Amino acid sequence: MIYLVYGTEIYLKNRRIAEIKSQNSISNSLMNEVVIKGKTGRVETIIEEGETHPFLSDKKIIIVKDSELFVAGRKDDSNKLAKWLESAPEYVYLIFDESKIDKGNRLFKTLRSFGQVEEFNMASDVQIASIIKAEFNNPNVDHRVLQYFISKMPNDITYILLEFSKLLSYCGAEPISISAIDEICVVALEQQIFGLIKYIFNQDTTTAINFYHELIYKKESPIAMLGLIASNYRNIFQIKDLARLNHPSRDIANKLGLRDFVVKDYINVSKRYKYQEIKDALKLCLDTDKNIKTGLVEAEKGVELLIFRLCIKNSTIA
After folding, report:
1. At 63, which CATH number?
2. Same-domain status, 110 and 171
3. How far apart, in Å, are the Cα atoms of 106 and each of 46, 81, 184?
4. Which are the contacts of 42, defined by CB distance < 8 A and separation ≥ 6?
5. Do 172 and 215 sit in the same domain of this protein?
6. Are 297 and 239 part of one and the same domain?
7. d(CA 13, CA 258)
8. pLDDT of the chain, 318 residues: tens digit per residue
9. Total of domains in the chain
10. Residue 55 is part of which domain span?
11. Which of 119, 135, 156 is the last residue of a domain?
12. Mapped to the 3 state alphabet, what secondary structure does the chain carry?
């Protein structure tokens, strides 16, 4: 049996691989499980391992990680392996764990025709909540508080689970609270910028500038913040376009690699913008970047001025 699990969400891929291994338990697993990692892994090695009979067992598992055999660059190797897979021994259970794939790739088409292909990208907020409850045996946390916690986390389930474990240790027998989340959890810059963007959209210039100063005080890079501000406006442009075509919010989230709550908020925000106004905001970001790089303005002051101008501009479109 041949499996391909691909996508960006490592936790979900690892969980699926563990399920496959559990469903196809083998004798003498130490002798009959092989892991081949990286694009330097030779196709010949995969084939040789596949042709080598299992030791005192009727099954052998071969896990190939991040081989890049499903994207451009290893065409000859991909074709060679695809041909072998068409007559691979029945005792072989081959699992490919990949980050990126090209659906036009011959190897991908071969696997799709007689293997199992599953995609694991960013989980929905509902899935994340379910995983947290399962991993921590229904922890003592209110639904609203759990959603607040999830909204503060990056798109990385492993990181989310580590932060939630910290919360449980911190709160002990007491229920988890929003104040505990604010006090103990490390919030990624990307999520903090989302908060800054909200102030900008609400034309709250004073709060936006004060929040920016807090981030500077925490030693966050103004250049990194500039990039994330521009990225948020690009997301609004794309979300506005996809929503206009009646794409469901969950589909938009998957397509753009964004969290559900971000897409829902930005669908509402995008209704307040004309396409040209979003382009104007992006031009302000580009001009700021250029002025910083050419030395016309110091980075910290340049981004502060950008935030001020974006707040003022928003007041004209509310």
Report:
1. 3.40.50.300
2. no
3. 17, 10, 48
4. none
5. no
6. yes
7. 18
8. 899 999 988 899 999 998 888 887 765 577 888 899 887 778 888 898 889 888 888 889 999 999 888 888 888 888 898 888 888 888 888 999 999 888 888 888 888 888 889 999 888 888 899 999 999 998 989 999 999 999 888 888 999 999 999 999 999 888 999 999 989 888 878 888 888 988 998 889 999 999 999 999 988 999 999 999 999 999 999 999 999 999 988 888 888 888 888 888 889 888 888 899 899 999 999 999 999 999 999 999 999 999 999 998 654 444
9. 3
10. 2-119
11. 119
12. CEEEEECCCHHHHHHHHHHHHHHCCCCCHHHHEEEEECCCCCHHHHHHHHHCCCCCCCCEEEEEECCCCCCCCCHHHHHHHHHHHCCCCCCEEEEEEECCCCCCCHHHHHHHHHCEEEECCCCCHHHHHHHHHHHCCCCCECHHHHHHHHHCCCCCHHHHHHHHHHHHHHHCCCCECHHHHHHHCCCCHHHHHHHHHHHHHCCCHHHHHHHHHHHHHCCCCHHHHHHHHHHHHHHHHHHHHHHHCCCCHHHHHHHHCCCHHHHHHHHHHHCCCCHHHHHHHHHHHHHHHHHHHCCCCCHHHHHHHHHHHHHHHHCCCC
Q: Are residues 165 and 86 in the same domain?
A: no
Q: What pTM was computed for the model?
A: 0.69
